[in-house]
Amino acid sequence: MLATIGIAAMALCGPALSQPHGDKERKEDILRHRAMAAAHEAAAKCLESGRTEKECLEKLRQDCKGLGIGKYCGMRHKH
Questions:
Q1: Please, what is the end-to-end C-alpha distance for the chain in angstroms?
Q2: How far is Cα 46 from Cα 64, in angstroms, rounded to an integer?
Q3: Where are the domains of the chain?
Q4: Which tens digit of pLDDT belongs to each residue from 13-71?
Q5: Segment 36-47, tens digit of pLDDT
Q6: What DSSP line would sit under 3-69, residue for residue?
Q7: 2 secondary structure, DSSP code
Q8: What whole-number distance in Å separates Cα of residue 61 and Cα of residue 57?
Q9: Quick one: which of 1, 35, 40, 69 has the fewest CB in 10 Å?
Q10: How much is the pTM?
Q11: Phi and psi (nearest 5°) for 36?
């Protein structure tokens, strides 16, 4: 039942999500992608420096606030 509802919701939202962006929205998307990339690069450098995963994920969470979906800009590894 939930799967059917989910599929129906995606079908209704699909056309709204696929509409082309204007120049302003495109520039904002580019800036967001660069900010997310910088946050993830900083997280990688944090781990390389020997700091704990917990410390680096906390910094990533802070850097990603308001940028992407979820706490970590849409990226959390499985371990």
A1: 31
A2: 15
A3: 25-79
A4: 445 555 677 999 999 989 988 999 999 999 999 999 999 999 999 999 999 888 877 77
A5: 999 999 999 999
A6: HHHHHHHHHHHHHHHTSPP-HHHHHHHHHHHHHHHHHHHHHHHHHHTT--HHHHHHHHHHHHTTTSS
A7: H
A8: 6
A9: 1
A10: 0.64
A11: -65, -40
Angle at 18 between CA 13 and CA 21, to 5 degrees: 125
25: number of CA atoms within 13 Å, CB side? 5
How many CB atoms lie under 10 A from the CB of residue 73? 22
Q: Report which of 59, 55, 63, 53 is spatially closest to residue 32, judged by C-alpha positions.
A: 63
Length of the chain: 79
User: Which residues 6+ apart lie within 8 Å of 60 measured at CB?
Assistant: 39, 40, 42, 43, 46, 72, 73
